[in-house]
Design brief:
Helix content: 25-40%
Number of domains: 1
CATH class: Alpha Beta
Structural class: alpha+beta
Largest sheet: 5 strands, mixed
Number of helices: 3
Radius of gyration: 18 Å
CATH architecture: 2-Layer Sandwich
Order of helices and strands: EHHEEEEH
Number of strands: 5
Shape: globular
Strand order of the largest sheet: 1-5-4-3-2
Length: 105
Amino acid sequence: MNLVLSRAAEKDLERLDPHTLSAVLAIVRRLRRGDGTVPLKKIEGASQMWRIRVGSWRIIISPGHHADAGTIVRILHRREVYLRVFEPTPEQKPATQPVSYLPVR
């Protein structure tokens, strides 16, 4: 598979510790070789976005126009990835309800 790194993904790679960096690069190499054992999963609620889990880190991939092409969008920790990559839909945003206070007797 031909992969392109987004500018944000390049910056994400620079911030990784050496152990995580080597694990991420090993997965990316396997994906580029076309290794069918890469744990690639579609992200629910996101059209055309896939993720690869590397420990506590996630590699977010957007496939290209051709079946053998894609862009690595971000490489983030699991607690940050869905907040930074995806904007919540109106259904996912919490409803703001006015708070009513009961009088204290």
